[in-house]
Design brief:
This protein has 432 residues and is of the alpha/beta class. Helices cover 37% and strands 22% of the residues. The strands form four sheets. Strands 7-8-9-12-13-16 form a six-stranded mixed sheet, with helices on both faces. The longest helix has 43 residues, at 2-44. The chain is globular and about 115 Å long. 32% of the residues are buried.
């Protein structure tokens, strides 16, 4: 009886062990199937064509999404305007039934790109505007009796010639050009204004002006003038001798191709008259040729760096010739309209301790713009370099500060800045 009971217990344990083994086998089999399914899923992921052949619906393959849609990671790759526009063009080329005007799309796209840039001087020129700009590439051009400068890419009157049409029509220093001959949509740069006036020599030009409260201010009263474009023979470099103080005074209106030579001639004449000190006046000077700024600065410097120029290729220095025209004391007059290459002169003479600056802080337009032709006929104007002082300080958006601040007389009676500079130079004059 005992043996039978033991046999029955052993048989029960055997059945339980077999049942447990079957359960383990089923669990392992399920795990293996799950792993195989995951591996297959990864393999088929993104295989849209294969999934469709296997009969999976569009909701699984993702082809029911908006055409051209892509994953977030793919969109992140499109970190350039050209790539994004290229994607749009591909979509239109493959699925759109409509067309677009390539020229108009190019003009609007590149204009918008220029306007969205942090570079206030960036400008896209259509083939027509660029062709017009090429018609005037020298400094001798017809005008309306106004010397133009540029602030944040916009042309404005920095000086109005005495007795000119513009002066008679009420144009004042600080007036911005808003439109020419009815074109008020584009922003007019200094070079474009010069070009359009040159092309219209001998005929009337209608100019819309804006008179803000300051160069930095927006808005302001607008008015319109109709002026005949003609050549004005305005002397660029003028000089005079103060015999009582033994001071030679030289004013430079802009840095044209021969400005440095004209200043050299003036210095020699003033030395012959007995000048013991000099006043160099570059107020309202919009700049011009950098080479002229370097040569003109060299007339007062024994050597050393005149300006540092920073480009995408690095930084380089332009140095003085080491052959000065005079070593006598120099007083330099600047104001808020002293700009670009003229600021290079101010920084060079200040950092070299060669001149004492009086007047007002310069504009802070220490950048260089170039124009690059485009293969389809247009051109792009952009900032390609920045000027730094000999000591490595920024000029752009900073300007050059005078050692002696003197604001211009508001009543227009006399020239207190010039009077002070000549008086100071006289106190330093070396009497021969």
């Amino acid at each position: 009886m005992g043996d039978r009971l033991n046999n029955m217990r052993a048989a029960a344990r055997s059945r339980k062990m077999r049942a447990h083994s079957y359960r383990l086998i089923r669990v392992f089999g399920f795990v293996i199937l799950l792993v195989a399914a995951l591996v297959l899923g990864f393999f088929l992921r993104g295989q849209t064509a294969l999934l469709q052949q296997l009969g999976f619906p569009d909701s699984i393959t993702g082809t029911s999404q908006v055409k051209g849609d892509s994953t977030a990671s793919k969109k992140d790759v499109y970190n350039s305007v050209s790539a994004r526009i290229g994607e749009v063009e591909d979509v239109l080329a493959s699925d759109s039934l409509d067309t677009y005007n390539l020229t108009e799309a190019t003009d609007k796209t590149l204009t918008a790109l220029s306007q969205s840039s942090n570079d206030p001087y960036m400008r896209y020129y259509t083939p027509e505007r660029y062709s017009a700009l090429l018609n005037n590439r020298d400094e001798s051009y017809a005008g309306i009796g106004v010397l133009f400068s540029e602030y944040d890419g916009q042309a404005y009157a920095v000086d109005v010639f005495d007795g000119s049409q513009a002066q008679l029509e009420g144009v004042q220093s600080g007036d911005f050009v808003v439109g020419i001959n009815g074109d008020n949509l584009q922003t007019w740069s200094r070079s474009e204004v010069a070009a359009i006036l040159s092309q219209n020599e001998g005929s009337s030009v209608v100019i819309t002006w804006r008179r803000p409260s300051s160069l930095e201010a927006s808005g302001g009263e607008q008015f319109v003038t109709t002026l005949v474009s003609q050549v004005y023979d305005e002397v660029n470099v003028t000089s005079e001798y103060d015999e009582e103080r033994h001071v030679g005074y030289v004013r430079v209106k802009q840095l044209t191709a021969n400005s440095a030579q004209l200043v050299q001639n003036a210095i020699n004449e003033l030395l012959a008259q007995g000048a013991g000190a000099f006043v160099l006046d570059i107020r309202n000077n919009p700049g011009g040729y950098l080479s002229q700024a370097v040569t003109l600065s060299s007339l007062f410097m024994n050597g050393g760096t005149v300006v540092e120029v920073r480009t995408v290729d690095g930084q380089s220095a332009k140095s003085a010739t080491g052959q000065p025209a005079t070593n006598l004391p120099v007083i330099l007059i600047t104001n808020k309209n002293t700009a670009a290459a003229a600021e290079v002169i101010a920084a060079a003479l200040k950092d070299s301790r060669r001149a004492t600056l009086v007047g007002e802080r310069t504009m802070g337009k220490g950048s260089v713009q170039v124009i690059s032709e485009l293969s389809f006929g247009g051109a792009l104007r952009y900032t390609a370099a920045y000027y730094l002082t000999p000591e490595g300080h920024d000029i752009d958006n900073v300007g050059v500060s005078p050692e002696i601040d003197i604001a211009a007389s508001e009543d227009g009676d006399g020239d207190n800045q010039k009077d002070y500079a000549i008086s100071l130079a006289g106190s330093l004059a070396v009497i021969q």
